[in-house]
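2 proteins. here.
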Amino acid sequence: MNVRRRLLSGTAVAAATALGLGLLSACTSASTAADGTSGKLDVVASFYPLQFLAERIGANHVAVTTLTEPGQEPHDLEISAKQTAQLQESDVALYLKNLQPSVDEAIGQSEIGTKIDAATLTSLEKHGNEVGGHAAEHDGHEGEEGSGEDPHIWLDPVKYAEVAEGVGKAFEKADPDNAADYKKNTAALVKQLDALGTQFEDGLKNTRTKVFITTHAAFGYLAERYGLTEEAINGLDPESEPSAGRVKDLEKMAKADGVSTVFYETLVSDKTAKTIAADANLKTDVLDPIEGITEKSRGDDYFQVMESNLKALQSALGAK
């Protein structure tokens, strides 16, 4: 099957913003006040993938507070007054602009000295599979282009490594006394991400099909990186309902391309996925966008869940 490249446009803004202080080590929730007397850098991360980077790079020099509680859908987050007050007391805010509007607003209005937008540390893209795309081609027409850039950069190990390097450089400038440790920790994390990328590349190189269906258009970067085609039921909004036409297109595409599985995620209802799968006589499985770690997650951290995702893709795509 001829897999089309899904990249429609790219806005590349590169490299690390240099900024001022902050982080804290053990992860506390946003409902727990940061320890301003710990002597550690105090950082607020907007959600799990950025919390994970901050903890791995900062290690025992930082204390990390996350605004998004485990199990909470980050797209739906509304900042509380208490969280806004805690944000004001932090040294560093680490966030991903345009993923969580209430976070963007709160950070924009805050007087935090160091504001690190992860979206400036790598390039963002628009992907053409959010509404119509490949599935619509089987019905003889193209779908509309998705609106807005795809924020799910952490699901591509290469882009996530670029963000890690930018965060590491920002921490080095914020806390020169511990710069050597930040540099060492960043290098170790990037090496691990490089190895993960190689696992995906090797594991998805030879498969029976290159097309997969998900409820949420979170895997465009991953699909780009490893020569796959993502077809999303709901687009970038995991809670939206697909049109009857979209469902029909997906069912036709699944039959034409030998798709066996409809993927759903842990933080959103699986009802739509199971309905479409039942109608098209397909299986369902989890493909986790890793927006938070819960007891339902197939792993305890980013790397374990990504490895579970690889196994799920290999099974669904018929890896040889």
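next one coming up
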Amino acid sequence: MRDPRDIECWLTDKDGVLVQGEIPIPGASDLINCWVDTSRRFLVLTNDSSYTARDLSARLDQAGLIVPEENLWTSALATADFLAGQHPGARVYVVGEAGLTTALHDAGFVMVEEDPDYVVIGETRTYSFEAITLAINHIIGGARFIATNPDVIGPSATGVLPATGSVAALITAATNRHPYIVGKPNPMMFRSAMNRIEAHSETTAMIGDRMDTDIVAGIEAGLFTVLVLSGITGRKDLERFPYRPSLVVESVAELRAMM
């Protein structure tokens, strides 16, 4: 039976595990510093495709967490990595922010308005009717449909916002085409992350706060899974799920003490 001391490489969710909004969760900084100080390979994963790794690193720094940009893996980066293995240099029509367009550009894709091979939908705060209409027509015309993540809502200062999954559902309703979704809970995102840091599933762990995304995808990828109770899933929720994490802790502070 594996335990935290057996783990060589770590994957961790960001929201609910390391931060709550802009506030670091107690123990998060100590855990990251431990990984850095002991040269552990690790990546912080997020389904949010709107920010580049550099932007996210700067935002975490403002929250008091020092995470180098090379230790961040977003659904945008995972999507670019997936498409690079499918159709290098493809023509893509993108609905999304700089995090997605930069990832695709850096991976060698050409962003176009006409005759794309793929329509790629990601997070954005400025969805336009015109952009969505164009995406719908491209998909009806034969373009393949990709979404960075399935999240239907995201947080904002005034409440929730429609996220990638909501817009993808709208496009699906109009086209009768379902997207291939790269981000969590698709284990593809974890496999691409492990490839990035040359990790092996037998000695890699996933830390998450949601049973229905982080933990189930970690299990399906063959990882040691750690559920922290500092985010979405509470202890009383565990009985609802037909699968179990390898370890349940109150927060990353408790996990850090086990290492």
